[in-house]
Fold these 4 entries.
Entry 1:
Amino acid sequence: MNEKPDIRHLNFDQLQNWVLENQLPKFRAQQIYDWLWLKNVASFDAMTNLPKTLRQQLAEHFEIKKIQTQIIQISKDKTIKCAMKLFDNNVVESVLIPTQTRATACVSSQVGCSLDCKFCATAQLERKRNLDYQEIYQQVYFIKELAKEKYHLNLTNIVYMGMGEPLLNYNNVMKSIEMITSSDGLGMSPQRITVSTSGIAKMIVKMADEQVKFNLALSLHSAIEEKRQQIMSISKSNTLDMLSNALNYFYEKTGIRPTLEYIMLYEFNDSIKDAEALVQFCKKVKSKVNLIEYNPIDHSPFQRTTKERLQNFTDYLQKKNIIVTVRRSRGQDIDAACGQLVNKNLLFAN
């Protein structure tokens, strides 16, 4: 038995062609499209303004591959972490990070990850597959609804910082952003979206050439080549020089200043010597720095830095006129680190 195509894989023109080929009124295409993207329905029966015969016809020809929540954890600080079950029983993580006035969705782009960053829980999981663009979109939609339901907040920001390396799933990530920013989708500004990468120089250049409008964050974590290679093997083929050139090219082409993400690991990359190396890297790259408190994970040698070392590091950067913010740890009382919830509960499909 042949698998039915996912109807969300049809763009609007293709959907309209199907409607016309089946001798249906042209306006039905827009109705169906709105149900799929604006309302994110999980079944054809939910398309209540369509005739029952059309709903049955759609169900005969297509399917809607939906995602469902499997586990939800709510932190004391109101962060909500969700394990999202995909149509094939694989699971990814999506997170709602609220403040009093903002709600950020952190979404995954792959099931597992092929990179082996030593501080990351997702790296302990085998990469199963890339997420389809509609699966990424559905995560965002779910978090949007969750923010409204739990905290009466509108979704204000989206970060591609969940499981997986977004630039190794380039086409689906770009298509998901296209739909999220489209008036046919969520209509969000691309300036509210950040894509975080471990550092694939040629793909950063590709984004620059395409003159993307969203924000870019690089997971740097050390500006000393040997140290970065110890914790991120991808840096062996994407050196700091390659990355600085790619980031500068990105800034020249887009006018968007990239963010350098830097997880503070106790007595590994949190000394003043490390801060000085970061300052030197920042002199080469028009950028801003985001220092991140580490969420420790099982089977990792790393621990969170102390408040004193974090403050000293921050002060040093500021004295050198580096634009720096500190991202405080959220969800410490739940499985806060990326990939931790899936990893602990062994939620992957066999």
Entry 2:
Amino acid sequence: MIAPPERLPERDAAILGMLPHVPFDGWTKRALRAGVADAGMPADEADLLFPLGTVDMIETFCDLADRRMEEAAGALAETRLTARVRAVIALRLEQNRPHKEAIRRALAVLSLPRNARAAACCTARTVDAIWHAAGDRSADFSWYTKRAILAAVYSATVLYWLRDTSEDDADTLAFLDRRLAGVGRIGRLRGRADSLLARLPRPPALRMPRGVGDTG
């Protein structure tokens, strides 16, 4: 798992305080100072809490969203893994609905080439948190394939969600259902292909013609 950004209660409080200001001021020191003031902390804390600047703020926000999602997911009733993955993503969208514009601005920052590594880390940590919240504890090779597939599904879903104006994210959840159904079909086809290949007789080992490969 990729290490998260520094976790401090003061950093979390500053991020929560600045979120209402981000739609107007962006992920800037101005928004951070306003958030620090709203959180009731000394003004000079703004320059100390996020020494790495804008990307540090955004990574902390993503990490905070991951933790809030995992904490709330414990109350979900679904038992099937796919259903829980869907429910966890739906929960995350619901939690972040008030911050949609802040997320839009964060993605604009992370889309810059110089921030590609930070963007990849945020996505990887979030996808890992979704699987963990859904109850997946696999440690085999499927750990990588499942996370790669979910990264593509989740990223596409967030981009759709940012444009969605339907009530309670209904259109986005329908979009997510279609993506998850597509992944399920791919998995079933792969399973059938693996099963079929396992039943096929193996060809006899090829015998090399006499003299080919002889060294003597």
Entry 3:
Amino acid sequence: MPALPWKSFAAREGDREYPALLSYLPLNKWRAIPKFMRYTFEIRRQLADSEGLIGYSLDANVPSREFWTLSVWEDEESLQRFVQQMPHSRVMTDLLPDMGQTGFFPFKVDGSSIPPDWEDTKRRMRER
């Protein structure tokens, strides 16, 4: 399944830095995929209403049960507010038994480089 195209929610300024987050979310159980997909739709609705979101994308490799998210935010406070609000906060807890070793890569991105390049960002996470 190809990555969902970048979805923009706010204009970006080319000459400033923004906080970004790459998340690696591997599932350790095939039976968790329907639940994960249902939660993905809930979180996408939350993202659409999130204050401070510049944009996001999702890369899903269903055969290997590996999922990636990539988002850029106006500021760190907006990102933290999203993570702590429902449904995201509930989903993180509910999926714990179904997850393998997750990975999170916070980084800064120049406004002129939004949307971030998937492969470059994944490479930087692996090198960290």
Entry 4:
Amino acid sequence: MATVFIDGSTGEGGGQILRTSLALSCITGRDLHIENIRAARRNPGLAKQHLSCVKAACEICSGRAKGATRGSMVLDFEPGRVESGNFDFDIGSAGSATLVIQTVLPALFLAGEASTVTVTGGTHNPMAPPFDFLCETFLPAIGAGGFRGSCKLLKHGFYPAGGGKITFEIRPTEKRSQEIFNLCEASKKFQIKSRIYTAKLAEHIAQRQEKLLEQSSLDIQDIEHIEVTDSDGPGNCAMIWISNNERTTVFTAFGMRGKPSQEVISEVVSLAGDFLASGAAIDHFLADQLLIYMALSKTGCYTTNKLSTHLLTNVEIIKKFLDVDFSIEEDGSVCRVSYQPV
């Protein structure tokens, strides 16, 4: 089969292009050549987190990589056959553990036997899905399509210290119905809850954030504060859960030095409020992550509240590997994405 050539500066020009390309190279068995890796980022090229994704892809299929060095903007990847097993990856930094897991998940779901993946690194990082999103939003959504697994948080890891650990149990993909990924109707009945994480920080930070959440425009039924005791370093994030009988959507904003609590809470409330006002069924963070599973299933549709560059870029990368297409229709504040046979 011909090598797939990918321009890493396409669309959003970030690490998602690398992760999707590695996943689909493993699945299809097609060699990958990718240039301009993370060209749109302030520090372009491969960082520790992305090298961990490459290493993970190599390990699950006995693949070979050329150019897998810090700062490299060119990578050649030759996949072998994907095999199930017990895998353990250490990023060696606060790089996102959830993104490393998401790199190998699609291929391991198709491996035929159960697998376990454990990753040490960041579990709650800005610019990446936190563990709570992986567990409570992402997993149930792909589970509707027969891609079933479970995950556990073994240790919290906040940016910049890292040192957290998560483990993921992957079950072989089951036969799926033609109704999968029918995530188009938003529920009119839901509950809103919130969680505040603090680690090695003054007590007044959580108290201030809780008060701001109570004063927000959202009808938050319950606010939980978790004082994290197992973290290697300080950390803070505020989360909002929007839940109904069918699904849970998790939104997160991260605190950091010099960022006032008012800004943290305003950010997460705005994310949740925009989603609720749109009338969409799933949020735009989940939307681009579902595409590869819809493509593998050859069916599905959803509505989301934003047509992100991540989504549009992922569509183009998937089409480089698979003979699939997607229909994208915008109607006011809602965007409908559907699998289309070619």
